[in-house]
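ingest -> validate -> predict -> emit
validate: passed (alphabet ok, no gaps, 173 aa)
predict: started
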Amino acid sequence: MLFWLLMPMLGSSIRSGYSLDMAAEASTPYLETPEVVRLCGLPYSTLDYWVRTGLVTPSVRGGSGRRRARQWSVLDVVCVRALKELRDAGASVRVLKQAHARLRDTWTAALRDRMLYWDGGDLIQIDEWENLVSLIAAPGQSVLHVVALSVDALRAEAESVATANGRETRRSA
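emit:
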């Protein structure tokens, strides 16, 4: 879901370039660092710090050497944007590292229609069976089973059965 939220913003910012990591593919869409910074709403210094500390890495081309621009894949941008949102929500750097590893490990076509949730302590994903699954605290385990009850519907059903049986309550004043 994060991917689809980001796609309209990527628009014409995606370029085609040669991927050093994927020699079999002639070209891979990529973005350069100024575009990533703008799309993610992240200061350049923060993104640079995340790269220097190894939290994130551009997969198309690193910035080693003078005047050599970093090139980021669409997945890289989705990950950076997700990490920025988590950080803004109060996630620790430890959680950001785990979240980044999970996003990269589980990135498939199926992840495109997934939604990630942060509850203040765990990153949660809804799986294909609509179960809430922990990605950080207890990876792969269901974390919560929610039951939604309409109390008003239950009351109305009970009242209809009671009146059908001729049992109305008398209120004393």
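Helices lie at 2-10, 33-40, 44-52, 74-88, 93-105, 151-164.
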